[in-house]
Amino acid sequence: MRRRSLLVRHRLLAVLGLLVALLIPTAPSSAAAAGTPPQVYGAWHCGDDFCTWGRVRSVAEFDSMNHWLIDRGDGRPSVNVVVLSFVEPQKLLRLTDDATTVDGVPKGMTPEIVQYFTSRGVRVMLSIGGITYTDEWDAALSENATQLGLNAAALASRLGVGIEIDYEQNTDPNLTALQAFIDAYRSVHPYDASGSRPAARLTIDVAAGDRWLIAVNRKATADWLRTDTPVLDYANAMVPARQPSASAATASWQEHVDGKPQFAPPVPPLAPAKFTGGLYVAYGRSPLPECTNFAGSLQSATGSYVQNVAPNGAGSTPGMLGYMFWAAEKPSTRGLGTQPPNTCEGGVGAGATAYSVPVPMPPLRQG
């Protein structure tokens, strides 16, 4: 009887052990978890006036609001690129001087602010457009797309920065003129795979997935973001209307990897090495874990996907290019920004450490 009890007990323990093994997922190998580390890990930056950059700021005052970007707590930057947002396209075309702009550029986008970042190894880019300036993009492209491209190239040379195209026209975008803008820019700053010339860095923003900004995304993927004949350096898959779940974020990014063959005309697949994924760090009235708590953040929860997603028809290497965060300091008239006391060393900065983000940014994968 005792032997039978022991046998039953051993069988129960074996069954329990099997159940535990099934319920607790096996941890991936370190190589699988690590994958391809992010090369781009950056933040769009809206200044302190909701993306206008309309006034000159002292470096000391700017640092008091933004020190976390250049110091994650141990003296190393939290990011390796910042994108100052936004330049108004029509003003850049016409080299406008007004209360907030000089030579077509927001007054706050000064050489001193650029140097604040570049002196710490952080790359700087200027974003032209944004959703607020969609009509201005249309008008400037219609007026003189080539001159707009030449003016953008001259601005990049003058400040030692790259340029981001943020043309958020969802219905009938002027792609012929946008091609002329890109051709003009590249006539001054040819594509540079080494990444050694800041002004040669030219990128574009696309939607979080393939179902908005479809025409812009289709053109960019088919003609400008190819791995065999690259024209633009990479794309940023922007944030959706609100912070997604981890599964929703990766589903959107997978749409770019897969393309949309069922669309007419189809959207081709995009190489994972040719785009970043966007997440919010400032949204609503409560601090986000993406800003303050890496362990609970989406950049942590999606890390395995971002580092390991396989190409599906374009590209040859696994892993997306990295992350971009919307947006530093004060992106909206409502809700929190990332200025003190809501700074992001614990989220973005801790992620830079966890992923061993290189600062300065290295030459980017080309496929």
From TrEMBL:
InterPro entries for the chain: GH
Key word Signal present: yes
SUPFAM superfamilies on file: (Trans)glycosidases
Keywords: Signal
Signal sequence, start to end: 1-33
Top-rank lineage group of the source organism: Bacteria
Gene3D superfamilies reported in the protein's UniProt record: Glycosidases
Full protein name: GH18 domain-containing protein
